[in-house]
User: Which sequence fits this backbone?
């Protein structure tokens, strides 16, 4: 996720590569990332003494696994001037961040993977002491990869369940629809492409025309036709309920992680 956020900033010239320092877990991660990141970025392993330089930066992006958080905080060097710490960690509260990083001003962010293609959604919740200039900096960081919303922290679990876990649910639907088309006689490559385009086009139509999903469903569903036969099959197997429960389960898991 850190890479998805940083690379567009570099491509748009927002930040020079030589002003970025990326710290990764170890030698293996170092080799994996070296070829994936643009040239000019400082890239070091966490056990390299020069990794401590990251704690002197005015803006720091925290994108480690939640179970690594305590170790990262314990290894943090001294900070000057209350730098911004922007966390993308699921379920890690502002209270915990501010306890672990007392010298920082903390921001909790929930971005999603469509940021990779500039179609992301990010929710922001502000910690204590964030001034207007810092808020503008953080908004701009995420605006370069999609739409930015500001939410009360209590709403972030539901936001995460829908927007961050949601792409996986949509991907399952895309795969299943393509499988159905293969079963009905289409070649695999064509079925996948058509499934992706159908989902993308439908989402764009809903968004641009500001349609309620039920309106679009009714537009497509004619009496005694093919679509109502398919909708009936989906209702029979409980697709609607399954998706509702998937989002609720993801939100509950996010709360558990906190």
Assistant:
């Amino acid at each position: 996720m850190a890479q998805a956020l940083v690379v567009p900033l570099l491509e748009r010239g927002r930040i020079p590569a030589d002003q970025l320092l990326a710290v990764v877990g170890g030698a293996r991660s170092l080799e994996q990332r070296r070829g994936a990141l643009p040239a000019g970025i400082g890239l070091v392993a966490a056990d390299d003494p020069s990794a401590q330089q990251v704690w002197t930066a005015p803006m720091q992006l925290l994108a480690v696994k939640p179970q690594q958080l305590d170790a990262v905080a314990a290894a943090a060097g001294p900070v000057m001037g209350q730098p911004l710490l922007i966390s993308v960690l699921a379920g890690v509260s502002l209270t915990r961040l501010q306890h672990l990083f007392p010298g920082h001003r903390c921001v909790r962010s929930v971005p999603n993977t469509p940021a990779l293609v500039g179609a992301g959604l990010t929710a922001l919740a502000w910690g204590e002491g964030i001034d207007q200039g810092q808020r503008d900096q953080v908004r701009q960081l995420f605006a370069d990869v999609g739409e930015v919303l500001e939410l009360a922290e209590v709403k972030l679990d539901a936001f995460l369940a829908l927007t961050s876990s949601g792409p996986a649910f949509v991907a399952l639907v895309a795969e299943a629809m393509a499988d159905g088309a293969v079963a009905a006689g289409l070649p695999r490559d064509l079925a996948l492409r058509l499934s992706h385009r159908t989902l993308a086009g439908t989402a764009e139509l809903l968004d641009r025309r500001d349609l309620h999903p039920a309106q679009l469903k009714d537009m497509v569903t004619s009496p005694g036709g093919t679509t109502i036969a398919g909708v009936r099959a989906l209702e029979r197997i409980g697709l609607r309920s399954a998706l509702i429960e998937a989002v609720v389960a993801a939100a509950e898991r996010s709360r558990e992680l906190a």
